[in-house]
């Protein structure tokens, strides 16, 4: 029997590991930006390679859609376990709380690194006038890489609002059964194609869409752009449907060769239609090429998400202490990683190293500092309970063996 077919209360180790991996890949993705042949990032390095662009593209195409599928699934399971009041309390504590607590600190550190890099690039002189900053209005708000927490909160509100009429009026379970049938239809070979349709339309309708960057990141406004709202909303909704039909996870896991082959093929096609690994940072305007690129990229998003889900469910379904540790640490690592990545990029700028060695140094250095701070400050403190829902006690030295009682004669 598959481990997925056991007790429904069992922890989904494969999906937990995949969720953590999606967050940790953000370190690699942001580190690679400095080594693009065309400057696209706040810190640019003289050592560049188109391979850095391919690495970014491959990660970016599936990472956040996969994360939101798992987020939707786990949200439904949490609601079932704790009820509406418990769900709202948990999400406010573990999602809204960290966003409010760390956003301004992260933003301040990012600005400090930008100023430091400008000071280095100008030989110790800063411009007399700073460039215009954000207006902190709903349409101009620097959410930074923590945008996913804000979008999660929006999806939770929508989830509860859409669920309310089902609870009140679906007394016969007709709508619920329809949702279960829809989940069964989507959790098959045609699923990625069907899910891709709304996103393809949203990308095609996106003004000045740069195909290489795929789904525009909603990090500069409190109102997510339509393409991001569509891409991640569809993924989140699919995750909710899967939570009601966990038996379908076995079907997805069994289809991993098909999903992996499809993902590799359409992701390669999306890269070609986007202009190759250069990258080409020119918006697509011609209707034909734009429609083709939007359709193939949208399919790549969900095909690669299905592939990631299938591989995790098939090959990481069992318990692993290392995967569990990294999954627990991934939330904290992602929160703090961006200023660390940028600082590392600044530090390696002047080194005469090849780009791949610089990239490795930035990633390893960032992970080392972030994991050390997690182990020393977060995991065993109240913050571990805050971020991960549990606090792990520190292991002390093993107790000394107790000698057997001395038996004396009577």
Describe this structure in words.
The chain crosses the membrane at residues 21-42, 54-79, 100-121, 141-162, 182-203, 223-243, 255-274, 294-317, 329-347, 353-374. With 410 residues, this protein is mainly alpha-helical. It has one domain (12-386). It is 66% helix and 0% strand. The protein has 13 helices and no strands. It is globular and about 70 Å long. Mean pLDDT is 91; it is low at 1-9 and 404-410.
The residue-averaged pLDDT reads 91
Strand content: under 5%
Give me the Rg, rounded.
Answer: 23 Å
Shape field: globular
Query: How many structural domains in the coordinates?
Result: 1
Listing every helix as H and every strand as E from the N terminus to the C terminus, the arrangement reads HHHHHHHHHHHHH
Largest sheet: none
**Which class of secondary structure composition applies to the elements?**
mainly alpha
- Percentage of residues assigned to helices: 55-70%
Number of helices: 13
User: Ranges with pLDDT <50 over ≥5 residues?
Assistant: 1-9, 404-410
The strand count comes to 0
Q: What gap, in angstroms, lies between the N and C termini? A: 59 Å
Pfam families: Acyl_transf_3 (PF01757)
GO molecular function: acyltransferase activity, transferring groups other than amino-acyl groups
Organism: Dokdonella koreensis DS-123
Keywords: Membrane, Transmembrane, Transmembrane helix
């Amino acid at each position: 029997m598959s481990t997925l077919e056991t007790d429904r209360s069992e922890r989904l180790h494969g999906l937990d590991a995949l969720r953590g991996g999606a967050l940790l890949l953000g370190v690699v993705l942001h580190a690679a930006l400095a080594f693009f042949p065309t400057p696209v990032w706040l810190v640019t390095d003289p050592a560049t390679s188109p391979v850095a662009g391919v690495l970014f593209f491959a990660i970016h195409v599936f990472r956040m859609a996969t994360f939101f599928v798992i987020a939707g699934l786990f949200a439904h399971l949490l609601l079932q376990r704790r009820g509406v009041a418990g769900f709202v309390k948990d999400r406010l504590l573990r999602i809204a709380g960290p966003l409010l607590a760390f956003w301004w600190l992260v933003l301040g550190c990012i600005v400090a690194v930008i100023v430091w890099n400008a000071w280095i690039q100008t030989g110790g002189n800063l411009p007399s006038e700073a460039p215009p900053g954000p207006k902190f209005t709903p349409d101009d708000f620097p959410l930074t890489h923590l945008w996913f927490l804000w979008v999660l909160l929006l999806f939770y509100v929508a989830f509860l609002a859409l669920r309310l009429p089902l609870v009140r009026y679906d007394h016969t379970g007709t709508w619920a059964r329809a949702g279960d049938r829809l989940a069964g239809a989507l959790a098959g070979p045609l699923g990625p194609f069907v899910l891709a349709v709304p996103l393809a339309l949203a990308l095609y309708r996106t003004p000045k869409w740069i195909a290489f960057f795929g789904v525009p990141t909603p990090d500069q406004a409190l109102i997510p752009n339509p393409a991001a709202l569509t891409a991640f909303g569809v993924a989140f909704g699919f995750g909710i449907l899967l939570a009601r039909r966990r038996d379908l996870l076995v079907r997805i896991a069994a289809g991993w060769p098909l999903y992996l082959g499809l993902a590799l093929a359409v992701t390669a096609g999306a890269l070609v239609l986007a202009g190759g690994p250069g990258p080409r940072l020119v918006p697509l305007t011609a209707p034909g090429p734009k429609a083709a690129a939007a359709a193939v990229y949208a399919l790549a998003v969900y095909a690669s998400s299905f592939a990631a889900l299938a591989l995790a469910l098939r090959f990481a379904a069992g318990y692993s202490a290392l995967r569990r540790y990294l999954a627990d640490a991934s939330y904290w690592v992602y929160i703090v990683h961006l200023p660390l990545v940028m600082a590392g990029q600044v530090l390696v700028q002047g080194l005469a190293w090849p780009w791949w060695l610089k990239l490795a140094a930035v990633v390893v250095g960032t992970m080392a500092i972030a994991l050390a701070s997690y182990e020393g400050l977060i995991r065993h403190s109240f913050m571990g309970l805050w971020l991960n829902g549990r606090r792990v006690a520190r292991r002390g030295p093993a107790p000394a063996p107790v000698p057997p009682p001395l038996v004396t004669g009577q």
